[in-house]
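Why does this matter for the project? Reviewers at the last site visit asked to see concrete outputs rather than summary tables. In response, this paragraph embeds two records directly. Each consists of the residue sequence and, immediately after it, the corresponding structure tokens. Nothing has been edited or filtered.
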Amino acid sequence: MKIGKISNTILKRTILKTISGLYNSYVPEKNKVGLNANKIHIDDQCPVLMATDCGIEPVYTVANNICVRGGRPVCIQCSIVLPTNFREIRLRKIMEELSNDCRLLGLAIAGGHTQVSASVLKPIISVTGIGIMENDKDIIQSNKAHVNEDIILTKWIGIGGIRNIIEHSKEEILLRYNMDFIDKAMGNKQDMSILREAEIAKKAGVHCMHDVSQGGIFAALWDMAEASGVGIDIDLRKIPVKQEIIEICEMYDINPYQLQSAGCLLMTFADGYGIVDVLANAGIEASVIGKTISGNDKIIHNLDEVRYLDLPKQDSLYANWKGNVDDERKNIKFT
């Protein structure tokens, strides 16, 4: 199989079909495409949400998965499997990075497990995030988009993926662009968190959210539309992306619309421009990029050109970027 997140086709026929029926009164919600954090129903006063990730920036990913369900992430647990030739100093670097991410997000590390195995050639880092909700009624779904709603996107695409590219290929990129250019493309690490915008959107009444992670904005749009049973009509020119990110992507033949974009929040709402104004007042960039429509068509407009979204593809970071295959530092980020 291809590197990265498995395809929706394999997910449905091999994962979801196999575990069908394995839920109970504590986990009443069936697993489905687009459901990245599930609710554990202990009592009505304080439902718990859990999410797991082992890809790029797993701490931010699980925290975002909890936020889009209407929860507040509070802690993580991490599991690390190391190859036999792994040095302790590199393990310390992994733990320092995980700890720094948790500090920035206000998360505790509740525990975990670390072991060495002859079965792996590179470190495998798996993070489980745990979050809470004020009450059971606050749960938000990624499959609750309704026809004729605005589709809103916060910040800009490519946030998580471009950081990974720059971190591992900065010297090569510096041969073409200066440091100021690179800094503009990279932004701040906190850009990858959607905690603030998700909380604001929830209070404003948004009922459908989806984080934009592996596969980029195209995959997120497909998943949200497919799960909700609606079509979408998107204006490609309205999807925000930094020019600096576009130019670095061109260096590596990467499609920014299929690039990991942790930090973007996708949502639908009847008054999308009202949500954009509310977010702007809080200092958060957001744009209306299209509308939901009846039927199943997933339309992308670019001036006079009209195309249709395909099934989500492998993230461009895995599919196209060949510059970091043998990079030792890559092992900290990739699995």
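We now turn to the second protein, recorded in exactly the same manner.
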Amino acid sequence: MNKVLSLLGLAKKAGRLEAGEEPVGTAARVHGIRLILLASDAADNTARRAERFAEEGACLCARIPATKEQLGGAVGRGSCAMLALSDVGFASAIADRLAELNEEEYGALAERLSVKAARAAERKELKKQGKRRPRKK
């Protein structure tokens, strides 16, 4: 779990993480997030709001085995029940670490995010070369 929390701290320092319900909701409305993380002890209302934000933002949502205090400590706050990652690379790395802890629960999440990360890397490479990705018919 320490690897996940340290990656969250790095994402915060890089400016790729939103912490708290209002910033997460705002980022979800503008489709700027890839993954929403919930603390294990987050309230049911908070979980429902996070799921709604994930639907609005067309992103993934997962409850992780860390308390609000642990999540808050990782991102420099007292406590935090909800976090959102805007970078697909960070989101994929965190999902991979979670899958290492519990493959059964987080394996599908890690797989979906690794596919999204691969597509993003492909688009970035094509953009660098000045090309476009061919459209599917």
